[in-house]
């Protein structure tokens, strides 16, 4: 098992926590919470994860003498809603949950964001744990304290920064993940190599096929390195103030445009990010910021992992429509297009004021 420390200074308390990463470690969650003095916990999970993994977490907590409730929400993005959050607040009130009750989110990013937001807001904040059961959650959403829900007007519009007490990334839980969900998560792994770590990118190139086949030890190593890179960024820019955390948005401005244009649920987030990274690299090459050769290298790595670098045929992705969506992106300032673009493998820069004509060229080029 590996432990990655997320070091966060607090005004009067140390808010640092560990991301524990390894095989079969879910069974130890009871001891972990007991060691933190927890006497009571509420598990929040979704319908798919409840039987597969959450019950094992419940058994472990019960065996450690922790009084326990288990609440289940429907699987999928629609659960990140005001209605589902309100339902959980009501459940918490009915169960007389108080500040000594630990909230344990068992699931992917949806459960983590939702349960995290409810934990952040109920009784002005409850201790939170993430048991991350998707690749996306293990390398991204469970680390860093962003929680939130969606409104009709946009994704993640309501939320709070709320750091967990600990994160458990049990690699074994990834074995039950549907293939498309798993592969989609690999896009964020490639992203970490591209934005921060050239040696990791090369390692991914070497092991792409084995990773795509979920080979245990390699997968654990990929999750550990990705989690460590995310932790490092979060430590240095916890609340997205210095701009450093923005590097994590590589591929995401283009990606969100494809995700939105395709229509809800057509492209998975990671698939859209893969297409977005491919477009961002092309834009960097057009701007003479990146050698063409690197564009091809990234495309090939994405391809070997089973990820797209082109938008799927048959869907209408008119550049004007994509540009209009990007101009509305919440990370856009004053309608001006800015992008996180690579300057070489392992390094990105924030590039402001990009000419829309060149963006169109990047959208059309192959
Ligand atoms: N907070 C952040 O910093 C952050 C970062 C990235 C993404 N997110 C959010 O994360 C969400 C996406 O997360 P996700 O990709 O994990 O999706 P998800 O939570 O919807 O999980 C994907 C699907 O897999 C199922 N599932 C989960 N674990 C499983 C397992 N081990 N075996 C079988 N099935 C399993 C779920 O029920 C769901 O149907 C989005 O809402 C996104 O906004 C947040
Ligand atoms: Zn992402």
Please characterize this protein's 3D structure.
- With 366 residues, the protein is of the alpha/beta class.
- The protein folds into 2 domains: 2-176, Rossmann fold (3-Layer(aba) Sandwich), CATH 3.40.50; 182-364, Dehydroquinate synthase-like - alpha domain (Dehydroquinate synthase-like, alpha domain, Up-down Bundle).
- The protein is built from 13 helices and 11 strands.
- The strands form 3 sheets. It has a 7-stranded mixed β-sheet with strand order 1-2-9-6-5-3-4. Strands 7-8 form a two-stranded antiparallel sheet.
- Helix 2 links the parallel strand 3 (40-46) and strand 4 (67-73).
- Helix 9 packs across helix 10 (269-286), helix 9 crosses helix 12 (319-328) and helix 10 runs antiparallel to helix 11 (292-304).
- The radius of gyration is 20 Å and the shape is globular.
- The mean pLDDT is 95.
- The structure holds nicotinamide-adenine-dinucleotide and zinc ion.
- Nicotinamide-adenine-dinucleotide is lined by residues 46, 48-49, 52-53, 75-77, 80, 107-111, 113, 133-134, 136-137, 140-141, 144, 146, 156, 173, 176-177, 181, 269.
How far apart are the first and last residues' alpha carbons, in Å?
A: 42 Å
User: What is the strand tally?
Assistant: 11
* Unique bound compounds: nicotinamide-adenine-dinucleotide, zinc ion
How many structural domains can be distinguished in the coordinates? Answer: 2
Which descriptor suits the 3D outline? Answer: globular
């Amino acid at each position: 098992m590996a432990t990655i420390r997320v070091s966060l200074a607090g005004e009067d308390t140390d808010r640092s926590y560990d991301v524990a990463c390894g095989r079969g470690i879910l069974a130890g969650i009871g001891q972990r919470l007991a060691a933190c003095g927890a006497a009571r916990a509420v598990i929040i999970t979704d319908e798919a994860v409840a039987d597969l993994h959450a019950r094992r977490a419940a058994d472990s907590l019960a065996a450690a003498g922790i009084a326990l409730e288990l609440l289940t929400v429907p699987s999928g993005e629609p659960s990140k809603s005001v209605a589902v959050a309100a339902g959980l607040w009501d459940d918490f009130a009915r169960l007389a949950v108080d500040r000594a009750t630990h909230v344990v989110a068992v699931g992917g990013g949806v459960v983590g964001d939702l349960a995290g937001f409810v934990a952040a807001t109920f009784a002005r904040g409850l201790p939170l744990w993430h048991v991350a059961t998707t690749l996306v959650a293990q390398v991204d959403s469970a680390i860093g304290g962003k929680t939130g829900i969606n409104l009709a007007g946009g994704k993640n519009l309501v939320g709070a920064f709320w750091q967990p007490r600990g994160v458990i990334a049990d690699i074994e839980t990834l074995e039950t993940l549907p293939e498309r969900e798993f592969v989609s998560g690999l896009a964020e792994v490639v992203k970490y190599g591209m934005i921060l770590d050239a040696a990791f990118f090369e390692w991914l190139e070497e092991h792409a096929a084995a990773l795509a086949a979920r080979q245990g030890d390699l997968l654990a190593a990929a999750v550990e390195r990705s989690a460590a890179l995310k932790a490092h960024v979060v430590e240095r820019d916890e609340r997205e103030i210095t701009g450093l955390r923005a590097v994590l948005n590589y591929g995401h401005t283009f990606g969100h445009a494809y995700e939105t244009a395709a229509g809800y649920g057509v492209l998975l987030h990671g698939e859209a990010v893969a297409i977005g990274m491919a477009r961002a690299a092309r834009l960097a090459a057009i701007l003479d910021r990146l050698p063409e050769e690197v564009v091809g290298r990234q495309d090939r790595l994405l391809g070997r992992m089973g990820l797209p670098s082109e938008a799927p045929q048959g869907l209408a992705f008119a550049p004007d429509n994509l540009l209009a969506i990007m101009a509305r992106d919440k990370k856009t300032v004053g309608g001006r297009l800015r992008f996180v673009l690579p300057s070489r493998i392992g390094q990105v820069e924030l590039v402001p004021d990009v000419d829309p004509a060149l963006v169109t060229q990047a959208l059309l080029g192959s």
